[in-house]
């Protein structure tokens, strides 16, 4: 689990150069192939073969795309099909062993056993660099598979173009119709030594019209190739131990820009120098937080920090150009444009984490969202931004949370009123996911939407975030409108059953209702037991609705201790028993704030106990160490916040709720030059309870700190004990 990849990337880089371990199709016999879900990141630890190394990957997602420009070095008889996992020698794939595999920040190395080739990978922001150590052979090959991809299917490749400029340089592009339906990626590929020959194989079906290109033999040493399904190969003579290197640059704009990216970021052929640069950049980023804790916790913490700094990804060439949603070429003026916004996940903790540790990049990310809005034909902020597309995945309009949080915390330096206007326009887009019903009725009818309840709850939170931004900007009419909308969660609250429940268009609650079930109950990636606690912006009102603090506490206790029957897992791809605690599902994001809700009751020590339980159970320094998909860094951000002892229950507020730190000491080196230190005196696996919290010498009694308390610098001290302070 986790759906992360082990390959080479730099912080927020456009290139993610990583191995693929199989070639499963998205569909089999016209139906979804459930096994493909295991390959969202291209790499599955249990596999025994590698099919090649491609340049784009998602980190931690539960759906996928990408896997562009797969390269595989081989020697001996040329094979252009990938073969099978059971018989790797039937194709260009190779067996490998984890014993001969190295994964570091910015560097990956593996021995390809079948051809006795050592593969090494590193990268810059926009260029992947390969180094392949070959045996002596007059039949050494580099395969460029332009059909390969993740979540692949028969019609995914729309068009491919290759231009062989000379015997060391190849350029081209690939357009695909996947999660992003108009995604075009341009490339420039340079070899460290000339190839002696090259060719292609086309797998295109016969067309009614093919033009007059048949005058040429395009299969061998022909410099301009185009088609839907193409594979290229490049032949070399190699000496024993000879290293053949490749620089592979990407661009969203043009072949020329890809070549400029390459020449700007990697001028020569010193692989070790590029590797050292990548690791130096990572070391700088990872040293922004210095923790003292147990060895396992330290591995977990820096793994989380690494994963949190992978996404969103750079979507700007070195000259500032990028392709917009309008398919036009734009120039990012004074900011880096980003894509890969998995906002349903990341608004909760990752973007708030950036407002502390990456405020400069957070500012650019909000500017990227505003550029997205300006270029959108629907005049909407991003839902799930992906390579000049919105793939519209998941629910809510959580850009508004990220924008409000950044402005309220002083991160965004653009026009805040224009940003608020974009939030309002998005929240009033009536024909998107039931917003019209939500505005008219105060809820979304279950007979009109399969995710009616979760959408209503998420819109209610988002509207609260808009109201907070309006309040800051003294736009009282907007505040009044959206603070009223933020109470719409009450319309799905069924006092009789004690749960959030789907409501029909006639105003009655749906009769068939099981709060444990995840199917057909009006929720996305969750059930009513988890979603009934999703009012992060107003826990006090939720507690009142549930009958007061004592009953609310008992409900929380039941969530963390109940037993879910096996049928709960019948329709879930990403959640297993290892990913839950009682009925609490940590591997899916809607419940991420729930452990902190005890702070609003008379038993806040239970927040401390549950947070530490989650930290220990759901994060381990092993290959299967995540209790669910990392989701572009959200799971990792939860870990870091919680291990530091505080968490943003409701982004859009400047308040963090206190928990139980698992670090002994942490120093946050902030961009403004100040430091914020967390100290947990007598913290241990047994001493998980907080006896006293002191901020800069003053005791805290309300279980919270403010954003300014962190950014102003200072020291937060927790005094820990084995016994709860009741």
From TrEMBL:
It comes from the Bacteria. InterPro entries: 6-hairpin_glycosidase_sf, GH-type_carb-bd, GH92_a_mannosidase_put, GH92_N, Glyco_hydro_92, PNGase. Residues 2-251 form the Glycosyl hydrolase family 92 N-terminal domain. Residues 257-721 form the Glycosyl hydrolase family domain. GO terms for molecular function: hydrolase activity. Its cofactor is Ca(2+). Keywords: Calcium, Hydrolase. Coiled coil: none annotated. The keyword Hydrolase applies. Monomer. This is GH92 family glycosyl hydrolase. It comes from Pedobacter ginsengiterrae.
